[in-house]
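Q: Please design a sequence for this.
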């Protein structure tokens, strides 16, 4: 499958604007430039990169991560039969597989006074016996 720049296409938050045309993936100009910078020349690599690094795509397009993920959901059905199903099928969410919570879903930091209470005042030195 080839990837070509199509200046007539436009992306918008939540929609990459990518069109599958036979064996060609037509991509809006702003996204095409970013894909070239990232050395992404294959639809499977593009999908994997979006899933792994949505923030990079968000920064490049001026979107947020949720908009990038929504755009991927729109693109996925177009790539069925062209990209291996293991890449397109939803996986276990990252935070469940790794135990890491994405920053945007993390609870606010505890105030410093709470940290001192939890840590016993901040001293790791043993007290008198």
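A: Design:
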């Amino acid at each position: 499958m080839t990837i070509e720049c199509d200046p007539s296409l436009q992306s918008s938050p939540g929609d990459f604007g990518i069109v599958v045309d036979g064996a060609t993936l037509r991509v809006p100009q702003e996204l095409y430039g970013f894909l070239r910078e990232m050395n992404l020349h294959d639809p499977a690599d593009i999908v994997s990169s979006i899933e792994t690094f949505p923030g990079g795509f968000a920064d490049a397009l001026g979107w947020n991560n949720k908009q990038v993920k929504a755009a991927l959901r729109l693109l996925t059905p177009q790539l069925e039969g062209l990209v291996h199903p293991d890449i397109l099928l939803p996986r276990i969410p990252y935070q469940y597989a790794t135990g890491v919570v994405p920053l945007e879903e993390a609870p606010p930091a505890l105030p410093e006074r709470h940290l001192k209470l939890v840590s016993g005042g901040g001293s790791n030195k043993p007290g008198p016996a």
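Q: Thanks. Anything notable?
A: The mean pLDDT is 81. The chain has seven helices and three strands.
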